[in-house]
Design brief:
This protein is an alpha/beta fold. Helices cover 37% and strands 16% of the residues. It has 20 helices and 18 strands. A hairpin with a 5-residue loop joins strand 6 and strand 7. The chain starts with a strand and ends in a 6-residue tail after the last helix. Belongs to the Mg-chelatase subunits D/I family. ComM subfamily.
């Protein structure tokens, strides 16, 4: 048979579209032509494949070989098609039975020796192969990752010889069974390590319970970064579908994505990060920090030190939970359902309002510093809290119940209520859900409208205030929102003090 078709998967964002590797052998002078919009790494695969086939002891056909990667309009990159191309050439030259490859999808890069190397993006390909009802052939180094797609049959190989022996029936390979890569959490820092700051811990609890965005403002050394780093430890464990989404994102950005499975991500980019670093981009769009923080926490320390144009790119993803990157040739959508926690100083020197009078910033300097943050961005942050300096205590007495475990239990109960009532955290309520689940009495509604008018709050800010009040009621395990919940939620809006 001079024609063989092998199934594989490309990588476009966090998706894995199907690719058919078509191999045709024809009479004529020996040559190898590769078509189907291959990029440089794919074009080089023909040299890797030739050496791998010869060094594995097989015959490389001295014929006119045409390789087509279909569909032709889908860009292909990387070495992920090497194994499929090699098996296609061997099947077309009748060194491997073509029928044995009908229900197989192949991923893997080949070394010149024929060894099969790991590739990125195996988990999205594994999920797609499972949905297509096919078996997945992957490098041994990617087998654990592929097994996260439950119900998928995975064949793991370390060398081209193993794959050929399996398909020829000489040494069949049993489906790979995972070693149990299900829990590899690294411990989260505990909330009890933060001295004092009861108001800030209360705000952190509310943020965790409702998935609200949070901004800490205060002098240096008051524990803003410590508090933010404790937030992931308060959040409930990832659901299976959420964990798979997080792992799929890590899969397309790293060869070893499963170091902490299934753990919520905590991303802390430096304030010198560019807009593309935050939202993603490049000639071949790659995920940015907001996508790497999907279902986790994005912490922006020294918020005003970020370039204003960089911060403005966060506005749409904070509302929609996704980012669409458009290029002349590509339009890629990445998930970005993250929880923003930010920290800033009250002025350029950081000591505004200190009783010691250390601040020497002029009103113009302070105003210029604060103007780096736009009103629409601040409007999307639900909780604003000033973190004051605590009295120095080198060996403070631990407060009972003031730890991450106790706070996480309260958060879990509140999130369970929200899941049963509306199927999502309060911060993600849409307008119909807000009207259905955040109803107020007539007196409280008039009181809230008057407060919003007095503080010049936008309609978006009023809706977010309602969501925070709903979270406060959930923390107390009560069905309706009361005036106390509204008053506390109002305290977390700028200008309410």
């Amino acid at each position: 048979m001079s024609l063989a078709i092998i199934h594989s998967r490309a990588q476009v964002g966090v998706q894995a579209p199907a690719v058919s590797v078509e191999v045709h052998l024809a009479n004529g002078l020996p040559s190898l032509t590769l078509v189907g919009l291959p990029e440089t790494a794919v074009k080089e695969s023909k040299d890797r494949v030739r050496s791998a086939i010869l060094n594995a002891g097989f015959n490389f056909p001295a014929r006119r070989i045409t390789l087509n990667l279909a569909p032709a309009d889908l860009p292909k990159d990387g070495g992920r098609f090497d194994l499929a191309i090699a098996l296609g050439i061997l099947a077309a030259s009748v060194q491997v039975p073509a029928l044995a490859l009908d229900n197989i999808e192949c991923l893997g890069e080949l070394a010149l020796s024929g060894a099969v190397r790991a590739v990125r993006g195996v988990l999205p390909a594994a999920l797609a192969a499972r949905d297509a009802g096919r078996t997945l052939l992957v490098p041994r180094a990617n087998a654990e990752e592929a097994c996260l797609a439950s119900g998928l049959e995975v064949i793991a190989v370390e060398h081209l010889l193993e794959a050929v022996a399996h398909f020829n029936g000489h040494a069949p390979i049993a489906p790979y069974i995972s070693d149990g890569l299900t829990q590899s959490h690294s411990p989260y820092p505990d909330l009890r390590e933060v001295q004092g700051q009861l108001a800030a811990k209360r705000a952190l609890l509310i943020a965790a319970a409702g998935a609200h965005n949070l901004l800490f403002s205060g002098p240096p050394g008051t524990g803003k970064t410590l508090l933010a780093s404790r937030l992931p430890g308060l959040l409930p464990p990832l659901q299976e579908d959420e964990a798979l989404e997080v792992a799929a994102i890590q899969s397309v950005t790293s060869h070893t994505p499963l170091r902490h499975w299934p753990q919520r991500p905590f991303r802390q980019p430096h304030h010198s990060a560019s807009g593309a670093a935050l939202v993603g981009g490049g000639s071949k769009p790659q995920p940015g920090e907001i996508t790497l923080a999907h279902h986790g926490v994005l912490f922006l320390d020294e918020l005003p030190e970020f370039d204003r144009k960089v911060l403005e790119v966060l506005r749409e993803p904070m509302e929609s939970g996704q980012i669409i990157i458009s290029r002349a040739r590509d339009r890629v959508q990445f998930p970005a359902r993250f929880q923003l926690v930010a920290a800033m100083n009250p002025c350029p020197c950081g000591y505004l309002g200190e009783p010691s009078g250390r601040c020497r910033c002029t009103p113009e300097q302070i105003q210029r510093y604060r103007n780096k943050l736009s009103g629409p961005l601040l409007d999307r942050i639900d909780l604003h809290l000033t973190v004051a300096r605590e009295a120095t205590a080198l060996n403070p007495t631990p407060q009972p119940g003031n730890d991450s475990a106790g706070a996480a239990a309260k958060v879990a109960r509140a999130r369970q209520l929200q899941g049963q009532r509306q199927g999502c955290a309060n911060a993600f309520l849409d307008l119909p859900g807000l009207r259905r689940h955040c109803q107020l009495s007539t007196a409280d509604e008039h009181w809230l409208e008057a407060a919003c008018e007095r503080l010049n709050l936008s309609l978006r800010a009023a809706h977010r205030l309602l969501k925070v009040a709903r979270t406060l009621a959930d923390l107390e395990q009560v069905a309706s929102i009361s005036r106390n919940h509204l008053a506390e939620a109002l305290q977390y809006r700028p200008g309410a003090d």
